[in-house]
Write a structure and sequence with these properties.
heterodimer, A: 195 residues, alpha+beta, 2 domains, 3-stranded antiparallel β-sheet, 7 helices, 3 strands, 54% helix, B: 634 residues, mainly alpha, Actin-binding Protein, T-fimbrin, domain 1, 20 helices, elongated
Chain lengths: 195, 634
Amino acid sequence: MELPESALAGLQSLAHPARLPHKTFQLLLEAAFHNLLHPQADGTALDHAELGSLDPTLLKQSYAAITTCILEAGKQNADKSTLSTLLEECRFGSERIDTFCTEYQKNKGKVEALLGSIGRYPSHITDVSWRLEYHIRNNHLHKVNQPSYLLTLKAENGEARSAEDVTFSCSMEQLQDLLGKLKDAAKSMEKASQM
Amino acid sequence: MEEVDRILLNSLRQSGADIAEDVESVRQLTTELIVECVVRCLRILNPALGNGVSHLLPPGMSARFRIGMCLAQACQELGYQGEIGYQTFLYSNEPEIRRLLMFLVEKLPRDSADTADQPAEKSVLLQRLIATKIKQQLASAWLPPALRTTSLLNTQNSCLMNKFHSQALSLLSPSAPPLSPSQQSLLFTELWEYWEQHQPPVTAQAWDQACVAASVLERATADLSAVQEWEAEWNSQGLVSRLSPEEYKARKRQRLQSRIQEYLKQSSQRSEVRAGLAGTPAPDLTDPRPDHRCLRAKHSRFIHTEKFTFTQVSEDLSLHFSHQFPPPTPQDVQAEQQKEVRELEKQLKSLGEQIQDVRTAMETQTLTVNQVSEETRDRELSAEEKQQLLHIRKRALDLLPDAEGNLSKLQAVMEASAQRLVSLAGQWEKHRVPLIAEHRRLKQQLDSHELESSRRLMEIKEFHEKIKTSAEEAKRKENVHRQLVLELEHLSRGVGRAAYTQRILEIVSNISKQKEEITKILSDTKELQKEINSLTGKLDRTFAVTDELLFKDAKRDEAVRKAYKYLAALHENCSQLIETIEDTGTILREVRDLEELIDLETGKKTLINLEKILEDHRAIRQENAGLAGRLREA
């Protein structure tokens, strides 16, 4: 795992037990995780009595470093050993490494969820309803006599928006083609999982 | 035997032979399978030997025979001691095949399993991870949104998604911006004040809370890649230029600035020309709007090419121009302004025309001034020459009255000066030679220094390469180590091994039990033997005594004589009986031996093999006949 120099410098300044007592370190760490996972726009991120006694530049720098470190670790799916080697390189003591790692493990799933929520998904098809209709004749032809299917795919996208449904009609061959394609897709997924 | 067979078959399967799962003993192997197993083993043991032979048995009899011979020879070359020939493969019997397969499997390299799985690369690892995730997600059932747990919320697509949107963050940078010292201190204190008092924490800087993570990540990546890019550039170009990093940066900045200036000049000229063609006034350089677009284009190109090392310049530029964007104004103000602008433009146009006229006039004037000044310079030169000539002639005229004396005086002066010249030349030479030598020496030194420095440069480059490769190597090895540790954790801890050891211990205990029994039986037999011996001795003695007594009495008594006769007959019969019993025992033993022999022979499948041989013989005959027929036809 690689971090930019500014983040490394911030982490190194965190490692000094003299400059930063362990209690404050823990507070800062918790604040970083909390602000990342429960963002608040009002700028009260670091308004804690004990944090206020620190040098504001140092505090901001360390805070930015911790945030970067957490996000990068989540992005690279870093395990405990990788994280602890990184922190050791920044001259962290074993106690602080343990604190960091446990806090990270505790929140790893949420960090992953946060990172996973960047981007977009296509809608998920959750249900399908269909209807068979039969063309007997139309304006131009006296006898048509062809069946066709009316399909409605129910889709969902995110918890907030109720997704719109996809409706279309198709002939039997087209439906078979669609079915074959879907089967192919399912098979491909299975093949990908077999690797 | 079953245990041995299972181990054998397992290792054969590992060597690549296609043995069905239901085959459990060597007896079940068909000729085809035997040939395949042997060929696979040979291919692993000795590729040169094994690759020449197909692992599929051909239908033709003669080809089969040839393959058998080949395999037998190959096995002998590998050091197989037992009897082997084509018949071993084609007309197999169980013990021989088992012996051969055991020999081959023992020879197989033990660590083949280790060499087989090469350390997987990072991408392979990632793919594997993806595959396991997909498998997990495929295994979990779909649930309606209301029932989903938090872990399912992410995988089953019901969490709220945010588009990737990032924003520039202001972070406290550890290195001060490169400026002149006075400027730097001023700016630095101001920056410091900002950092200390006004800068919001990172997570509060983004306008939308959703893009905090994206912004932080992008910032980190940008910083990292800037460092990497600079290192790559420094290693490829900076080192060769033999400048210190600061000098190199300064030079590059200069180059870039000159390029920007040139571009600005060009574009302004172009727009002037364009304006001239269209009959509109030339846009003033202070109005950034027309130029802004091309500058933007240039700016973005710079960003692409010199992206990270010199963002400073382009940032300054963009800052500069963004300042001068006119703020949006309401409509009526705009109309008024437009009118004003039109008037001003008209004015500007007339002024421009005037300026143009004055400029052309000025150009012609400067041209004439230049011409005139040149002429005066020429004239001055010629006047000077003429004055010098005049001076010389005046001296000659002065000297003319006393011509002889003056001539001789002049000659003396000339000689003296010539001598002085010679001596001076000598002195010059004296100074010159060591100086030239010194010069040469210095030059050589310089050359050697240059050589040395280029050599050093090469070395430095090599070291850089080495550092990079070793760092990569270290990283790779670390990855491999981690992966192997993971695999080790995943590995089911040697079930087979434990089972085997247990089995071996059982067998050993069995053997010791059997040994005990055998010794017991042996001691029993010995006791029996002893008993028999003592009984025989007792019998002999008793018989002798009885015999003597009866013999003594037999001369006197007829009945006793009869008894004596009976006794002799009894003794003889008894000894015969014993002999018969002993004979029966030996015969029984022989029978058992023979039975064992029969078993062995039946195990060799002699009859079946004989039938097979007969069949094959017939096939060969047919083949031969066919070949002969074809020969005759040909």
